[in-house]
Design brief:
Elements: E1 4-9, H1 17-30, E2 35-39, H2 45-49, H3 61-65, E3 76-77, E4 83-86, H4 95-100, H5 108-113, E5 122-126, H6 133-141, E6 144-149, H7 155-173, E7 179-187, H8 192-197, H9 202-209, E8 216-221, H10 224-232, H11 244-257
Parallel strand pairs: 1-5, 1-6, 2-4, 2-5, 6-7, 7-8
Antiparallel strand pairs: 3-4
Bound molecules: adenosine-5'-diphosphate and magnesium ion.
Amino acid sequence: MVSVTIAFAHHKGGTGKTTSCINISGYLALSAKKVLVIDLDPQANATSALGIDKNNLGESMYDVMVGAVKIEDTVLETEIENIHLAPATLDLVGAESYLYRINNRISILKRSIEGIRKYYDYILIDTPPGPGLFIINGVVASDYTIVTLDPGVFALEGVETLSLIFDDINESSGVKINLRMAILTRCNKASLFAKIAGRSDPVKEIRKGMKGFFDSVFTVPYGAEVYEAQLKGVPISHYKPKCKAGVAYKEIAEEVMR
Ligand SMILES: Nc1ncnc2c1ncn2[C@@H]1O[C@H](COP(=O)(O)OP(=O)(O)O)[C@@H](O)[C@H]1O
Ligand SMILES: [Mg+2]
C-alpha cells in the first residue's frame, strides 16, 4: 500500500480548506481507510477539529519542517478510529523563515512523508492561506490538490489567482500541480453573489466558469452542524453524518476513493 496524498489549498483564508480536509478524512475513515491528516497551518484548526489540544503538545509539524524530528515522531492517534494526526501549533509560524534559508525548501514535506506513505491509504494535508512555503510544500508533496472556494463574488477571480500561483510553482520548481477537484463550500443559492449579480443560479454559473481548471466541481451546502462538529472536535461523519453538508462530503469522499 502506498498512500494517495492530497493537499487542500487556497491562498485566501476562510474558504473551507480545513473543514473539507477534516470532513473528507472522516468519511474515508468510516470506509475503513487509514488516514493521516497533516496540519500545516500555524492556526492549528485541523488539530483542534480532531479533538487534540494544540496548547498541550510535544513535537509537532514545526519540528518536522525545521528538520529536528521525523514526522512519525509527531503522529498522534485521535479519538476517531483510523485517523491519525501530525499536529500543528502556533510555533509553526517560525518554521517559514528557516525554510527560506535552506535548499530544497519546497520539498521538505514531500521527503518527510516518504517513509510513512506505506502505513496509510490517504494522507490529507491542510495548508494555511497565503502564497508562502507551506502551501508550496503541501502541493509539492501531494498527488493532487483540492481547491476550496467560498462561492462569493470573487470565487472565480480566486481561481485565476491560484492558478497563477501554481503556474509560478511549476515554472520555478518543475513540479506539476494536479488540480483534480474544486469544492464550493457554504453554498447557498440566496448568496450575496446572487443578490449582487441578479443571477438565478450562481453556483451553476461558477461551475461553468471553472471548466478547464478542474475535472470536477462539488458543492457543499451551508450547515450549522459543520460548525458544531468542529467545536466538538469530530468530523461531521462522526457527529451528524446524514445532515446535508455531511452527505455532500460523503459523496466527495467517494469520489476521492474512486
Ligand atoms: N458547509 C459549511 N457550513 C457551515 N459552516 C462552514 C461550512 N464550511 C465551512 N464553514 C465554516 O467556515 C469557517 C471557515 O472554514 P475553514 O474550513 O476554517 O476555512 P479555511 O481553512 O480555508 O480557512 C469555519 O468557521 C467553518 O466552520
Ligand atoms: Mg484552515
